[in-house]
Design goal:
Blueprint (H helix, E strand, L loop, with lengths): L1 H26 L15 E4 L5 E6 L3 E5 L6 E13 L11 H19 L3 H5 L1 H26 L5 H5 L3 E12 L1
Antiparallel strand pairs: 1-2, 2-4, 3-4, 4-5
Helix pairs in contact: 2-4
Subcellular location: Cell membrane
Pfam families: FliL
Keywords: Cell membrane, Chemotaxis, Flagellar rotation, Membrane, Transmembrane, Transmembrane helix
C-alpha cells in the first residue's frame, strides 16, 4: 500500500513539473521582444540568408483614449519583416526620408489601433484584418518614400522592397 502511494506521489510530481515547463514555454514573450532592445530604436538582425535583414519596427508606443470613452488604452505595435539588404528606406537612417517614413508608419499604427474598441482588438478576425491592412499600407508608404529618396530606381525593385511577415498588436486597457 505504501509503495502505491509513493508511486502516485512521484507520478503526480512529474506531471506538475511537466505542467510548469509547458506553462513557461507557452507563456514566454516572443523572440521579437529582445532584452537588449531599446525604446524607439530600430533593430536589425541578420538572417541565415545574407541578402535579407530582419527588421523590427516598434516605435508606435503610447497611450490613447478608448473610442468608447470608458478606458485609457496603452498600446505597443511591432512589425516584423524581412527586407532585402540595402534596398529599403527604413534601413537608410542617415537620410531625412527615412524619418518621414517612420513618422508615417507610426501614425498609421496609432490610427489602426485607435479606431478599434478593446473588445474588437481581442477578436482574432479583426486582428487579422488589421494585419492585412497594415501590411498593404506599410508597403505603400515605404515604396513612396523609397522612390522619393531614389528617383532613378527601377520600379520593379520597389515591388520587392518590403515583406511584412508578422505584426504583433499588444494593447492594455486601464479603467
Amino acid at each position: 500500500m505504501m509503495k502505491t502511494i509513493i508511486f502516485f506521489a512521484v507520478v503526480l510530481l512529474v506531471f506538475v513539473i511537466a505542467a510548469v515547463f509547458a506553462v513557461y514555454y507557452f507563456a514566454r514573450e516572443p523572440i521579437t521582444s529582445l532584452p537588449h532592445q531599446t525604446e524607439k530604436a530600430d533593430q536589425e538582425l541578420k538572417l541565415s540568408d545574407e541578402n535579407k535583414t530582419v527588421y523590427i519596427f516598434d516605435e508606435a508606443r503610447g497611450n490613447i483614449a478608448s473610442p468608447s470613452g470608458d478606458s485609457i488604452r496603452f498600446f505597443m505595435v511591432q512589425a516584423v519583416g524581412s527586407i532585402p539588404t540595402g534596398k529599403h528606406i527604413l534601413t537608410q537612417k542617415k537620410e531625412g526620408s527615412a524619418k518621414v517614413a517612420r513618422a508615417k508608419i507610426k501614425d498609421l499604427m496609432i490610427t489602426v489601433i485607435s479606431n478599434k474598441t478593446a473588445i474588437e482588438l481581442q477578436n482574432p478576425l479583426v486582428r487579422e484584418e488589421m494585419r492585412s491592412h497594415f501590411r498593404i499600407e506599410f508597403n505603400r508608404i515605404t515604396r513612396e518614400e523609397y522612390s522619393r529618396a531614389n528617383p532613378k530606381t527601377d520600379p520593379e525593385d520597389l515591388l520587392l522592397a518590403t515583406y511584412i511577415e508578422d505584426l504583433y498588436f499588444r494593447t492594455y486597457n486601464v479603467q
